[in-house]
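Hi R.,

As promised, here are both runs. First protein below:
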Amino acid sequence: PSPKPISALMRLNKYVAHCGICSRREAAELVKSGKIKVNGEIQTNPAYEVQLKDKVIYNDAKITPQEKKVYILLNKPKNYITTLKDEKTRHTVLELVQDQITERVYPIGRLDRNSTGILLMTNDGDLAQKLSHPSFKVKKIYHVGLSKPVSKKDMEKIIKGVPLEDGVAKVDSIDYVENKKDEVGIEIHSGKNRIIRRIFENLEYEVKKLDRVYYA
């Protein structure tokens, strides 16, 4: 059977998130930036209570929350970016799943275009909000291949915390992979952009391979 629309009143940012467009936090930004209309008028207040009779518009199309939730665990290949659209016409992760589902899904978190591994895609705005919030402390493990062997001295620096332009980058653990000195496994909770690559670039290593093998 077709999923039934959610009938309960909810705030506009939650309403938009339940339509499978983005997370609730991103939905709030969509509303504030004037990209959501309610009954033909731009509504910039994320806390606006959507009424049953309201018509909510995004990108010139009516959007409606659905009860059916979709969860896709994707092993992202290289050369795909974790956005829904790209002005440079690069491949996006949505292309990998759009022919298999009818629901609108979006990725939780990001993986660089050249990074591979586990990526969760969903239309569940509440889950996306929870996993994206720093207080949830999402555990992530990466398999990293470097341009040269990593010295024990640098391993110790990484454990202590590497100073970056936006603060000290902290990891939970790091170890060599199967005694290969140029491959390491890193466990981390930080959600900072390009954090793994920036840690090694700061220590003058080039990341040749970055594969996320564990998420939440």
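And here is the second one, sequence first, then its structure tokens:
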Amino acid sequence: DHSLNEAIIEEHTRLQPVREAADILLDTTRLNLHELRRLIRLKAADDSTEMQIHLQSFGFKFGLPQDAALVFDARFLPNPYWDTQLRSLTGKDPAVQQFLSSSDHARKLQNKITDLLQSWIPSFQDEGRAYLTIAIGCTGGQHRSVYLVEVISDQLKQLGYDSVVQHRELEE
């Protein structure tokens, strides 16, 4: 005897004590089975004493990631979407990478984010966190955010940190 909206509200109310008792919350809205398995391993694995670093690109037009501790906005960078030769590509493609790496603003942003992470990751580790999710967004989650996640992941590896990369809006 409830509308769908009323049923959802009731379910949310009934599950609130479970949510409050949870140590880890996972937003599974846009995950396929493989991504869900990887995310569970990332966030719930007991086999590593090191904090897991999760870098995620996303599109603001599809909403913010629910579980990100740090969110960065790349929408002010030059947008490859407006170049018809780059529009169908992603931030993983060399042409888009070249386009963005030639931008002073993109280089400055990636270096500032990396510097910030290098400074603050040890504090997150000292806090005893099992994982840290860092999200970088642009409008559609195809070009700028993907590029930055890839480059920053490489920079973190050079600094001795391993990271798991996810591009939420890309079909992988």
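A quick note on the second one: The two ends are 41 Å apart (CA to CA). Let me know what you think.

Best,
J.
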